[in-house]
Specification:
It is built from 11 helices and 11 strands. The protein is of the alpha/beta class. Helix 2 crosses helix 11 and helix 4 runs parallel beside helix 5. The relative contact order is 0.17. Strands 8-7-9-6-5-10 form a 6-stranded mixed β-sheet, with helices on both faces. Strands 3-2-1-4-11 form a 5-stranded parallel β-sheet, with helices on both faces. It has 2 domains: 151 residues, 3-Layer(aba) Sandwich (Rossmann fold), CATH 3.40.50; 138 residues, 3-Layer(aba) Sandwich (Isopropylmalate Dehydrogenase). Belongs to the phosphate acetyltransferase and butyryltransferase family. It comes from Exiguobacterium indicum.
Length: 306
């Protein structure tokens, strides 16, 4: 899967609507303009209506692409945008110019937000120069020190996110510093347990292997030099990190050293959530929207079969 293919797939979806909390932000509106240029969605924008209209006019965008709801504060914008998605008026929620803590409080509100009872986790997808296909990373934003049980849910969320893009049986590498189980290193014990749980059918719809060091997860030659065999070693589609610091460092290393493009969403809620950074480019925000829209479509299909 290349990001261009992901955008093309998302553009073929019908009736896609994105609710944006505190959309009165230049960087967010640049991403919206790019998304409209690629026929991704229509938008319900919450925030300062006057400023939003000025930004739309500045970019010469068609007002028919938007519904604008004026809100007085970023908190109100977050709450009303989340509620719009909960009601089914939009399929994806996106963060605008609102503090992350305020935004996540609205997402997790039991009565008006998107809490589903499932574990919420972050899934990032990177298109790295020199690699033929994108590679996923989870969890680099939500779980600080995930337990074994948390990691099961994190894997399930990540696998679901990739399957929405067309990955039939994602290859999941559970990362650690070494490739062997070391009783003094909890990450290796968890990785081995997760691998066995997958083999026994407790974690489904994917192939899990670990512990694997990063090089042996993504490079086939490195895996072969260590004598590692199987379908995951050197060929991983999804990297599962042992703790947030590892995920954060890999995430930012790929962006700033490898100059990778990134798409990232939160999964596990009632609907996908786009939680971008102000440092993300308009293109990255647009890729994240495409990623979220494809996951929203998959969620809709699952609900229809239940």
């Amino acid at each position: 899967m290349r990001f261009s293919e992901m955008v093309e797939q998302a553009a073929r979806l019908e009736d896609s609507v994105v609710a944006i909390a505190a959309a009165d932000d230049e960087e967010v509106m640049d991403a919206v303009a790019l998304a409209i240029e690629n026929d991704l969605a229509r938008f319900h924008l919450f925030g300062d209506a006057t400023r939003i209209q000025q930004m739309i006019q500045k970019r010469a965008l068609r007002e028919s692409q938007f519904v604008i709801t004026h809100t007085s504060t970023s908190q109100e914008a977050a709450e009303r945008a989340a509620h719009a998605v909960r009601k089914g008026d939009a399929s994806v929620l996106m963060k605008g110019l609102v503090p992350t803590a305020t935004f996540m409080k609205a997402v997790l509100n039991k009565e008006t937000g998107l809490r589903s009872g499932n574990v919420l986790s972050h899934v990032a997808l990177f298109e790295v120069p020199g690699r033929e296909s994108a590679i996923g990373l989870t969890d680099a934003a939500i779980h600080i020190q995930p337990t074994l049980e948390d990691k099961v849910k994190i894997i399930e969320n990540g696998v679901s996110a990739l399957r929405a893009l067309g990955y039939g049986l994602p290859k999941v590498a559970v990362l650690a510093a070494v490739e062997v189980v070391n009783p003094t290193m909890q990450a290796t014990i968890d990785a081995a347990l997760l691998t066995q749980m997958n083999r026994r059918g407790q974690i489904k719809d994917c192939l899990v292997d670990g512990p694997l060091a990063l090089d042996n997860a993504v490079n086939l030659v490195a895996a072969q030099q260590k004598g590692l065999t199987g379908d995951v070693a050197g060929q991983a589609d999804l990297l599962v990190v042992p703790q947030i610091e590892v995920g954060n460092v890999i995430y930012k290393s790929l962006m700033y050293f490898a100059h990778a493009s990134v798409a990232a969403i939160l999964v596990g809620a009632r609907a996908p959530v786009v939680l971008t950074s102000r440092a993300d480019t308009a293109e990255a925000k647009m890729y994240s929207l495409a990623f979220a829209l494809l996951n929203a479509q998959q969620t809709k299909k699952v609900k229809q079969t239940i």
